């Protein structure tokens, strides 16, 4: 960029490179392995920060430093948009000299372009009426020097610029942008700066008119009653609308990836005169215009202003030199070996200022801020994720700045002498089940509650699991009255998961913590399910279990990856035998009465003579039957017998006749 500056900075780089190259040389040689390649100014060291962790893995800290050199700059295009309005006439030579000095210091690879603007005499009022100020000049916006590598052509073109008239700033920016876009060609590895230099408040708009806000349709105004003959054509100009157009063009330039520098020489005396904005400039116009110009700059630092022409030109030269002489940013990438996990990474410059860092997988990268020259140090911490049984590479990488490419020395670390002190034998998970602490339980009554205990020891490899659940499908003849999960200390850990019950299937689905089941390692959970026989269970349903040794039950542990399952043993519970029904008692027999002698007939007196007296109501005892018959039945039967005999005799007589 700047020839003299480049030479000076190159000298400074040699000194800086020497300092960086000697950075902690003993440590670098002891811990870094140097390979062939450009490593000047590059260092990379690593050491143990903490080897007292419970898992026997060490924390390491490293530093990788790289230099950012001056002189390695991108080619630039400088597009100067110069205010050539009449108010700049007296001080225009100072500004031209400052810019010429800047341009002549550019390198051969840089290009320059010049556009200027002035004039405007058509005024338009709020009611649409247009008037022409015959004392002013037509708007004149032009490209004085097309984009070129020839700096002398730029200087010559600048010398031909003439100042007069109004301030059509937006039109000047638009012409410069359009012309540059039509002529710039390939911009690969080239940076573009637009430099607006102005001393006035924009007034002539993109449509070619100076917009007025007064409603009396008068171009001439007399803002100071004390000087009734002092005329101003600017006092009621719509300065806000004109400034908005300038801001929009500034933003269009930056949106296209170009840098925007706004330089405003503020001639307060002139702008506050009765012939200009008078009493409005210091309170309204000036603050607003400066705010808009600063907002339109690429950064707040890309806006300069001064009320002194000497200070203004000094600032102007400095800001352009600073921006155009900025070094190409340097980017360093440090790759961490897969045996280590990145814990943190930061970067600082020589002044201790933070430099942005990115971590992408196993790569740490840092990029210098634009224009920075000096050293940048990446600070990183990593942790071993495996046993380091020999000296091992920790990090290596590269730095690139423009055409410069360098390598970091490889940083290695000695073996971890305690790498296997924490080794543990892998323990697989197990699941067992009991009923009230036994393999078998005989119930004494049907209302008795009893507990199934599903005990799971998770082992020590749960960190790799993708699932963890305990499942117990309880027999349908049992009712579930309670489910609880406790750890090996009896602490209720039901909250570490979710218990669900679908019909008689109980599931305890364990949650991950920090996206892992590692917290289960070394622990034992017991899921206790309290049950009892259903009140509506029938003897027929229970009979097979009584006969076959009890109701069996088995639980499962789903662990590891999908499909991995362990089955518990099968404890049993035997329901009580049903209570037999009491046999029916036989009805008591009536005791037999002693037999009485029969009352004799013709040949023998009857054993039990018929008594038709008072005892008839008590029944007549029939001989040889041991029964008693009601006497009324006896009389009725006798009558029937007599009638039958009489009927038979009568019928027999009729036959004989």
From TrEMBL:
Compositional bias segments (type: Basic and acidic residues): 581-590
TM annotation in the entry: 632-650
Segments of this protein annotated with the region Disordered: 553-614
InterPro entries named among the record's database cross-references: Adh_isopep-form_adh_dom, Fim_isopep_form_D2_dom, LPXTG_anchor, VWF_A, vWFA_dom_sf
Keyword flag tRNA-binding: no
Keywords tagged on the record: Cell wall, Membrane, Peptidoglycan-anchor, Secreted, Signal, Transmembrane, Transmembrane helix
UniProt domain VWFA: residue ranges: 77-324
SMART domains recorded: VWA
Name of protein: LPXTG-motif cell wall anchor domain protein
Organism: Enterococcus faecalis TX0630
């Amino acid at each position: 960029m700047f020839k003299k500056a480049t030479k000076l900075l190159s000298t400074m780089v040699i000194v800086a490179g020497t300092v960086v190259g000697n950075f902690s040389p003993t440590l670098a040689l002891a811990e870094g392995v140097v390979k062939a390649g450009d490593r000047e100014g590059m260092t990379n060291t690593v050491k143990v920060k903490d080897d007292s962790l419970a898992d026997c893995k060490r924390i390491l800290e490293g530093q990788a430093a790289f230099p950012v050199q001056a002189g390695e700059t991108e080619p630039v295009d400088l597009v100067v948009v110069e205010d050539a309005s009449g108010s700049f006439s007296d001080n225009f030579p100072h500004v031209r000299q400052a810019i010429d000095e800047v341009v002549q210091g550019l390198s051969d690879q840089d290009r320059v372009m010049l556009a200027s603007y002035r004039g405007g005499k058509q005024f338009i009022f709020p009611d649409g009426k247009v008037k022409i100020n015959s004392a002013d000049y037509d708007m004149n916006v032009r490209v004085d020097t097309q984009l070129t590598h020839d700096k002398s052509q730029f200087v010559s073109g600048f010398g031909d610029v003439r100042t007069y008239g109004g301030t059509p700033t937006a039109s000047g920016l638009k012409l410069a942008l359009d012309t540059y876009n039509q002529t710039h060609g390939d911009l690969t590895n080239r940076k573009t700066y637009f430099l607006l230099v102005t001393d006035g408040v924009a007034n002539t708009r993109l449509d070619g008119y100076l917009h007025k806000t007064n409603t009396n349709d008068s171009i001439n105004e007399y803002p100071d009653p004390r000087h009734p003959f002092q005329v101003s054509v600017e006092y009621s100009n719509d300065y806000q609308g004109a400034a908005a157009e300038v801001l929009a063009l500034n933003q269009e330039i930056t949106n296209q990836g170009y840098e925007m520098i706004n330089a405003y020489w503020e001639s307060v005396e002139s702008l506050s005169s009765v012939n200009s904005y008078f009493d409005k400039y210091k309170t309204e116009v000036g603050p607003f215009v400066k705010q808009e110009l600063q907002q339109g700059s690429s950064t707040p630092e890309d806006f300069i202003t001064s009320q002194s022409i000497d200070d203004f030109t000094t600032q102007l030269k400095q800001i352009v030199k600073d921006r155009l002489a900025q070094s190409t940013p340097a980017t360093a990438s440090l790759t961490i070996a897969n045996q280590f996990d990145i814990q943190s990474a930061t970067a600082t410059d020589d002044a201790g200022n933070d430099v942005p860092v990115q971590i992408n997988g196993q790569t740490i990268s840092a990029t210098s801020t634009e224009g920075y020259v000096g050293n940048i140090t990446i600070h990183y911490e990593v942790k071993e994720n495996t046993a380091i049984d020999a000296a091992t590479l920790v990090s290596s990488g590269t730095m690139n700045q423009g055409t410069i490419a360098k390598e970091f020395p490889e940083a290695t670390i000695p073996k971890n002498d305690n790498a296997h002190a924490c080794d543990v034998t892998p323990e697989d998970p197990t699941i067992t089940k009991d009923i009230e602490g036994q393999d078998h339980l005989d119930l004494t009554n049907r209302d008795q509650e009893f507990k199934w205990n599903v005990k799971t020891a998770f082992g020590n490899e749960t960190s790799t699991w993708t699932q963890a659940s305990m499942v117990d499908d309880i027999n349908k003849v049992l009712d579930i009255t309670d489910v609880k999960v406790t750890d090996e200390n009896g602490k209720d850990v039901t909250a570490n998961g979710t218990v669900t019950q679908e019909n008689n299937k109980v599931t305890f689905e364990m949650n991950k913590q920090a996206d892992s089941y590692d917290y289960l390692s070394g622990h034992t959970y017991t899921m206790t399910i309290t049950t009892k026989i259903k009140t509506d269970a029938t003897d027929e349903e229970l009979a097979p279990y009584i006969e076959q040794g009890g109701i069996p039950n088995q639980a499962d542990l789903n662990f590891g990856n999908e499909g991995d399952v362990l089955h518990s043993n099968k404890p049993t519970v035997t329901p009580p035998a049903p209570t037999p029904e009491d046999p029916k008692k036989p009805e008591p027999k009536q005791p037999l009465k002693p037999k009485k002698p029969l009352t004799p007939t013709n040949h023998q007196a009857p054993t039990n003579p018929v008594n038709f007296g008072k005892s008839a109501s008590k029944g007549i005892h029939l001989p040889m039957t041991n029964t008693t018959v009601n006497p009324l039945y006896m009389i009725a039967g006798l009558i029937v017998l007599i009638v039958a005999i009489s009927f038979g005799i009568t019928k027999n007589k009729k036959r004989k006749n």
